[in-house]
Amino acid sequence: MAIILQVQDACKSYGSQALLDHAEVAFKSNEKVGIIGRNGAGKSTLCRILLENEELDRGEIIRHPSLRIGYLQQHDPFEPGESALDFLMRDTGEPDWKCGEVAAEFEIKGDYLEGPVKELSGGWQTRVKLAALLLQDPNLLVLDEPTNFLDLRTQILLEHFLRHFKGGALIVSHDRGFLKATCTHTLEVARGQLTMFTGHVEKFLEAKQVQREHDERVNEATQAKMKQLERFINKNRANANTAAQARNKAKQLDRLELIELEQSESNVRIRVPNVEQRKGVALRCEGVTIGYPDHMVAENVCFEIDHGTRTAVVGDNGQGKTTLLRTLVGSLPTIEGEPKWGYNCELGVYAQHVYTSLPQDWTVKQYLESEAALGVTTQQLLEVAGSFLFRGPLIEKPVKVLSGGERARLCMAGLLLTGCNVLILDEPGNHLDVETLEALADALQNYNGTVIFVSHDRHFVKRVCTQVIEVQDGRVAYYPGDYDSYLYRVEKEIDDHEAERAGGSAAASNDPAPKSGKAKKKRGSKDPRKQLNKIEKKIATLDDERQAIQKKFVTMTDPTEAQKTHEHLESLKAEIATLEEEWLELNEEMSDEWG
């Protein structure tokens, strides 16, 4: 593959912070590259430089003559009263028939195409922007946090678009699941350097950890040898009979070198409120109707949430997830009925735009001190502040000069310093980097209280949630399966719809559509329950094997053996994933037949 974009000897600083320090990287055509790094490391700055919206202090960006960059705009590019079709024609210069044809690939039809685009949800507006990108015929896409505020269906649609896009892509995202599903390479921006890795983000992080552990073991052995040589030299260099040996040992010592280890960035550890573990019902809704005076969102809402559970509220954008949360916390009155909280439930709320109400004249530290529960020490407060990137002098930074992302992180830090035993979180990860979001997931897993949250980050939801409530088509109810089965259902609906749209020519054929091998096997099974049990046993066996190899893997020192073992691990994971998918399909078929 040809190199279409190259960064050479790039330097870029803001004040004393060097975001790029003689950094170099090359991007090849057709590569899908996930760009990761801590908040403030320079990911968005790199994108702006590649888009020629910002200049390097030093260095060069070399562009292939055939390079055509397409950028997914984050701001609102739409004019008042403009339809999606009007925007596509204005933005791309293409005729209406061509714009309508490409828009249909993203299911933009009817009122969605002809009606005011500003009245569409954020997810549908993103679909319109994607259609505009495709019409511009780029061969390299630059996407900066494309999944922020996108619902699950639009995220999956964007994944499908990227997987089938024939050009390359540079994608900045904190969503590991999205990067893993779309990217073939990973670029880390850290300490002014750009490090390219062949493989998705999970493989990169695993390989990075394995390499670091290997280097640490080698350094330990080298340091032990150094001390041994130093003792010999100190003991024998003054003795005429052994001075020559001491000089030889000194030469050996000079030849020994330690592997230079990358200094670990401070580990992110988040402290959650230390609350009493309780049992019983925390929240009960019976016959509740939610919505607004001129618009009912859902009626006859009935569910219970027990203390200690972590409930993910799922559903498409515009279906009412935020409306439900606002109703539960009392900021939006019900149309009928009332949510009933258990005795002594203390609610801590993180809303998407809560940071707009922060006291402007306070400092970061003053705000956190005002939110902290009794008994929280100054050291604990500083640790939580540091985990949300308010370290050193930044703890005294005035609220009025904080960016939107900084204010959102400050609100989350303040919430986690309270003594609340119920946390209600609306999109808590939108302004957090990968490491901080992972730390938040760890913290919520260890939290003794109750969590009700909305998030479109699949990796985060899968780690945190213990049960699922779906808001869809005017109803709010428990989803009967776990989050994995919900994901599978949504992906299958999208796949089936795309296959139906793409299969017009196949439908004209007299031959029935071919069935997969798995489906044939299932239909031929006389006892589906036996087949289900067989798959479960196979998954359990393979998972035991995976865990045993994983334990052995982390102690390996031979790089060749480690690479082979890593490949075997990936093969096992893929086989387990395939079996889990088959189990879900079979379980769903049994539910349809017998339910």
UniProtKB/TrEMBL annotation:
Keywords: ATP-binding, Nucleotide-binding, Repeat. Residues 502-516 have a biased composition (Low complexity). InterPro entries: AAA+_ATPase, ABC_tran_C, ABC_tran_Xtn, ABC_transporter-like_ATP-bd, ABC_transporter-like_CS, ABCF, P-loop_NTPase, Val-tRNA_synth_C_sf. Residues 5-217, 283-498 form the ABC transporter domain. Residues 525-538 have a biased composition (Basic and acidic residues). PROSITE patterns: ABC_TRANSPORTER_1, ABC_TRANSPORTER_2. Pfam families: ABC_tran, ABC_tran_CTD, ABC_tran_Xtn. CDD domains: ABCF_EF-3. The keyword Nuclease does not apply. One of its GO terms (molecular function) is DNA binding. Gene3D superfamilies: P-loop containing nucleotide triphosphate hydrolases (3.40.50.300), Valyl-tRNA synthetase, C-terminal domain (1.10.287.380). This is Putative ABC transporter ATP-binding protein YheS.
